[in-house]
């Protein structure tokens, strides 16, 4: 299973037509510039407050999957003893490394094949990633694998039955928003696809991946609109109350939801970064070397570049994990 549309670019982001970007989602994108605009700054602040409310108050290790440039790090920086920041884009991770400090590990990898042992995290963030993935169930199973028993997942999804999409459907400019069974793909240009999900579908997918959704805790954001809402768009009592109402009613464009892992692996004892890792190709343990990690059974080597461990597998023609090992 692979990250869907990995060669595609999301719309609304600058510099998306570069050759490099077409190979890795968000590679080379000026994503900080995207967020450096008044309405989005409000959205950003409110989103961090929402995420902070859904995460546990503390823990051993948080995994920020699709961390980008570390935009949400303030929501969890002081709560966990260690953070693993994972993204498919080296350029995003370089920015994350520069924007954060302390107990962070930076890993470039595919979300569908994370180079992490089972149960190593007791919390995982999955914000503004789910809508890029075709295999909704598969990515949740992979997230469930790396979470320890009872671990908390916080994810966001683009809501198929938001008020705006209902209005567009009424105006006959959008397809039927009610059908819960399938994610609704929406081609958005440049070969990219944006998947809208029905709240019932997400709840069912979480159950299928052995998560227990947290009832009544959903929060919602109408994306860039908080910039125009005055006090209601700020991460204060009024803004968070509105986010709670929009989320529980599943009326907003973005919905943020939490779920706890059922059963599974207790957190293994990890005394070094190497103890967290496994080969994303064959699943065996890796060995630390001076400039990277080696997998003896399959012969692959994963370099550390600029402080970032690059566990990305080359894109093979048959989706088999890529090139021959060196
Ligand atoms: Zn291997």
> What oligomeric state do the depicted chains represent?
single chain
Low-confidence stretches: 1-23, 316-326
Output the CATH class name. Alpha Beta
The mean pLDDT is 81
Approximate strand percentage? 15-25%
Rg value: 19 Å
Shape: globular
Can you give keywords for this protein?
326 residues, alpha/beta, Rossmann fold, 14-stranded mixed β-sheet, 14 strands, disordered N terminus, disordered C terminus, binds zinc ion
Provide a descriptive summary of the structure in words.
Helices cover 25% and strands 24% of the residues. By secondary structure, it is of the alpha/beta class. It has a single domain (19-270), classed as 3-Layer(aba) Sandwich (Rossmann fold), CATH 3.40.50. Mean pLDDT is 81; it is low at 1-23 and 316-326. Strand 12 and strand 13 (301-305) form a beta hairpin. Bound molecules: zinc ion. Zinc ion binds at residues 279, 281-282, 284, 295, 297-298, 300.
Topology summary:
Blueprint: H1 19-23, H2 31-35, H3 38-54, E1 59-65, E2 80-87, H4 90-99, E3 104-108, E4 121-126, H5 136-146, E5 147-159, H6 163-170, E6 184-189, E7 192-197, H7 199-208, E8 211-213, E9 219-221, H8 237-248, E10 254-261, H9 273-276, E11 287-289, E12 292-294, E13 301-305, E14 308-310
Q: TL;DR?
A:
By secondary structure, the chain is an alpha/beta fold.
């Amino acid at each position: 299973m692979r990250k869907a549309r990995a060669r595609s670019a999301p719309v609304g982001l600058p510099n998306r037509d570069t050759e490099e970007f077409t190979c890795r989602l968000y590679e080379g994108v000026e994503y900080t510039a995207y967020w450096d605009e008044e309405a989005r700054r409000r959205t950003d602040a409110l989103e961090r407050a929402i995420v902070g409310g859904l995460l546990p108050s503390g823990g051993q290790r948080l995994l920020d999957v699709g961390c980008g440039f570390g935009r949400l790090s303030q929501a969890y920086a002081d709560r966990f003893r260690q953070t693993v920041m994972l993204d498919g884009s080296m350029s995003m991770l370089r920015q994350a490394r520069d924007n954060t400090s302390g107990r962070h590990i930076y890993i470039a990898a595919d979300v569908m094949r994370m180079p992490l042992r089972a149960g190593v995290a007791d919390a995982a963030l999955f914000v503004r990633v789910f809508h890029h993935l075709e295999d909704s169930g598969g990515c949740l199973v992979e997230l469930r694998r790396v979470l320890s028993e009872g671990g908390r997942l916080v994810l966001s999804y683009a809501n198929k039955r938001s008020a705006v999409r209902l209005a567009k459907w009424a105006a006959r400019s959008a397809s039927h928003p009610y059908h819960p069974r399938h994610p609704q793909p929406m081609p958005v240009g440049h070969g990219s696809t944006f998947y809208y999900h029905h709240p019932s579908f997400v709840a069912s997918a979480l159950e299928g991946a052995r998560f227990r959704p947290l009832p009544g805790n959903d929060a919602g954001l109408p994306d860039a609109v908080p910039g125009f809402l005055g006090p209601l768009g700020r991460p204060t009592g009024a803004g968070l109350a509105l986010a709670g109402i929009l989320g529980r009613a599943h009326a907003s464009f973005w919905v943020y939801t939490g779920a706890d892992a059922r059963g599974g692996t207790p957190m293994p004892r990890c005394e070094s970064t190497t103890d967290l890792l496994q080969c994303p190709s064959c699943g065996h343990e890796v060995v630390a070397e001076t400039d990277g990690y080696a997998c003896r059974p399959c012969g692959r080597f994963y370099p550390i570049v600029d402080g970032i461990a690059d566990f990305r597998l080359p894109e093979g023609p048959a989706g088999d994990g890529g090139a021959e090992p060196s």
